[in-house]
Specification:
The chain contains seven helices and two strands. By secondary structure, the protein is mainly alpha-helical. The protein has one domain: Four Helix Bundle (Hemerythrin (Met), subunit A) (Up-down Bundle), CATH 1.20.120.
């Protein structure tokens, strides 16, 4: 299996450095694989009474948090695809709150969202597994800041780790 080392903070905007700090494994690809089953287990064992739970007023529900993880992984994977394929145009940011509001995750079931997460994660793994070291080093501009393709793989991992930790601390 291909290995991808964790990105260096110099490869991405400071906003994302907290996500890099969440990563303890040296191989991002191995961690993306292992976190797939960890997410399915952690989130899949939540009792149905917790699926629409938010830990405070104005916070997202469990289903909205998982939907946000899925949306963010798709956005980061698209950026990686674009820059890995030679895109030179800057890519816009996205408003995570608008995405969650417009996604209507409350109408979906948690098992359905977990099935979608599984497919999105497998797609991301295949995307990164088939990029050369040269393509992983490609850089583009996203949300107004330079980022490498390799750093986007790290952000996908670190972002999910961040939200899974919050789930354990505040939702369970």
């Amino acid at each position: 299996m291909r290995t991808i080392p964790k990105a260096d903070p110099s490869e991405i905007a400071p906003f994302y450095h907290g996500y890099l700090q969440m990563i303890t494994e040296p191989d991002v690809m191995q961690a993306l694989h292992s976190r797939l089953s960890a997410v399915l287990t952690l989130w899949g064992t939540l009792p149905p009474a917790k699926h629409d739970h938010a830990y405070a007023d104005g916070k997202w529900t469990v289903k909205e948090v998982l939907g946000h993880i899925i949306d963010t992984e798709r956005v980061m994977a698209y950026r990686a695809l674009a820059f890995g394929r030679g895109e030179t145009q800057p890519l816009p940011g996205f408003n995570e709150n608008d995405y969650v509001k417009n996604a209507l995750f409350q109408r979906r079931t948690l098992p359905d969202l977990l099935a979608e997460f599984e497919m999105v994660r497998k797609s991301s793994i295949l995307l990164f597994a088939n990029m050369s070291d040269e393509k992983l080093a490609c850089q583009g501009i996203a949300s107004g800041s330079p980022v490498t393709v390799r750093a986007l793989a790290s952000v996908i991992l670190g972002h999910e780790l961040h939200h899974s930790r919050i789930l354990q601390e505040r939702y369970l």
